[in-house]
Specification:
By secondary structure, the protein is α+β, with helices and mostly antiparallel strands. Helix content is 19%, strand content 40%. The chain has 9 helices and 20 strands. An 11-stranded mixed β-sheet has the order 12-13-14-15-17-18-19-8-9-10-20. It has a 4-stranded antiparallel β-sheet with strand order 3-2-5-6. The longest helix is centred in the N-terminal third of the chain and has 27 residues. The N and C termini lie far apart (71 Å).
Length: 418
């Protein structure tokens, strides 16, 4: 037994030594540790999109793409990898398990036991009000500098005609008070546009890299969570769920009045223990298309009829070490355009998404200057260059393109070269 015990210890030490040697070689070469894999539902085998994948013991994270695939890059082999998604049990991989890339990760759907379920028996409006009042203590109380990956795409019918993506820096002040000094700067970016003239559509709508500032409802309550805005909605308590193994109250909302601007239908997820708003799923009321157009459309060519069809917004926060932080934002906008002399309308889909890949206290780095910040009058397209270098992203963490987007980029690159 003793001989076997010492043999196992020696073998374990050899494995650890080899891992450290490999990690040291990678560090000496200035390369990143790259972990990649796919996240799927354990029961159905379906890919899980927008699952959060983070390096344990660090602030580095990404999300999975539409195919459930991810790539995570770090300076050194992390203590482990944590994978979480709404409605699933979180899973933690050890450093040894995570080093076996590519990873095939399966998540179990959450089964909430009846004795765990605590139904909010009071007024759901009051639950939301309490969550809003607790924002200063539940979110960051000091300025922070975030790094994120941003992508925007446009599709004409079922074909991509535009792809742009970049790494952004984002400066956020404390959530304890309203402050308009939050800023976004583009660190690196690239773009592709279909060379076909028939694909060109000079329509400008609200959105872009400023979304993580403008749509952060915990920081900007005037969007939805101010007392005046909450008065415009009816609320109801829905079935509970879990996010990152933490029980969540789910509150449904719908318009209760007719306002001069479009309101939302949606759901708010509120952490049962901290009473922090951890997620918002919103769909803009499209019953009055003129109101929606006035709210969204910035510019369009003369002679084009703009018809909004759907606007869906996802705002996701991540709880970490007692603080809830912005994690992921996605805005999907569907609309039709009618041209004079054309019989049929053309459908378009525009999507903007941003994931926070890292964050640090602002005291450890320089805040973003006004000169370097992205302005609401700017278009991301004008701020970045064309696709060229296949190794463009190097060590940055990104959202991997889905297979269809990958193919679209390849086709657009070929067309640009012709």
């Amino acid at each position: 037994m003793k001989r076997t015990f010492f043999l196992l210890i020696a073998l374990f030490a050899a494995i650890c030594g080899e891992a450290q040697n490999q990690e040291q070689k990678i560090a000496e070469n200035g390369e990143k540790i790259v972990l990649s894999g796919t996240v799927r539902d354990e029961r159905s085998g379906a890919a899980i999109a927008q699952a959060s994948v983070s390096a344990t013991g660090t602030s580095i994270s990404v999300v999975t793409n539409e195919d459930g695939f991810f790539t995570l890059k770090a300076d050194r082999l992390p203590q482990g990898v944590t994978i979480s998604c709404i409605g699933y049990q979180s899973r933690q991989l050890t450093a040894r398990e995570a080093s076996k890339s590519p990873l095939n990760i399966k998540l179990k759907p959450t089964a909430i036991a009846l004795d765990e379920v605590v139904v909010w028996t009071g007024n759901p409006r009051e639950l939301v009000r309490i969550a809003v009042n607790k924002i200063p203590e539940n979110y960051s109380r000091t300025p922070e500098l975030y790094q994120g990956f941003y992508r925007e795409t446009a599709m004409k019918r079922n074909r991509y005609i535009y792809v742009a993506e970049g790494v952004i820096d984002m400066y956020k002040t404390s959530y304890s008070h309203t402050d308009r000094r939050d800023r976004v700067a583009i660190r690196k970016g690239r773009r592709l546009l279909s060379p076909k003239k028939s694909d060109t559509l000079s329509v400008k709508v609200t959105g872009g890299p400023l979304q993580p500032i403008q749509l952060d409802i915990a920081k900007n309550p005037d969007i939805l969570l101010s007392a005046a805005e909450l008065a415009n909605y009816d609320f109801e308590v829905l079935s509970s769920t879990t996010i990152n193994d933490r029980l969540q109250y789910v509150v449904g909302l719908k318009p209760r009045v007719v306002a001069s601007y479009p309101l939302y239908y949606g759901r708010l997820y509120i952490d049962r223990e901290k009473l922090a708003i951890t997620r918002a799923e919103l769909s803009l009321d499209m019953s009055n298309r003129d109101k929606v157009t006035d709210m969204i459309l910035v510019r369009k060519p003369a002679g084009v009829k703009f018809k909004p069809k759907e606007l869906v917004t996802l705002i996701d926060y991540r709880y970490e070490n007692g603080v809830t932080r912005l994690n992921y934002i996605r805005n999907t906008f569907r609309f039709n355009c009618d041209w004079k002399r054309r019989l049929l309308a053309t459908s378009f889909t525009a999507c903007c998404e941003m994931v926070v890949t890292d964050h640090n206290p602002a005291s450890n780095s320089h805040p973003i200057s006004g000169r370097d910040s992205f302005d609401s009058r700017d278009a991301f397209y004008d701020k970045v260059d064309f696709f060229r270098d296949p190794k463009f992203w190097e060590d940055y963490n990104i959202i991997e393109p889905s297979e269809s987007l990958d193919n679209a980029i390849e086709r657009l690159v070929k067309k640009q070269k012709k």
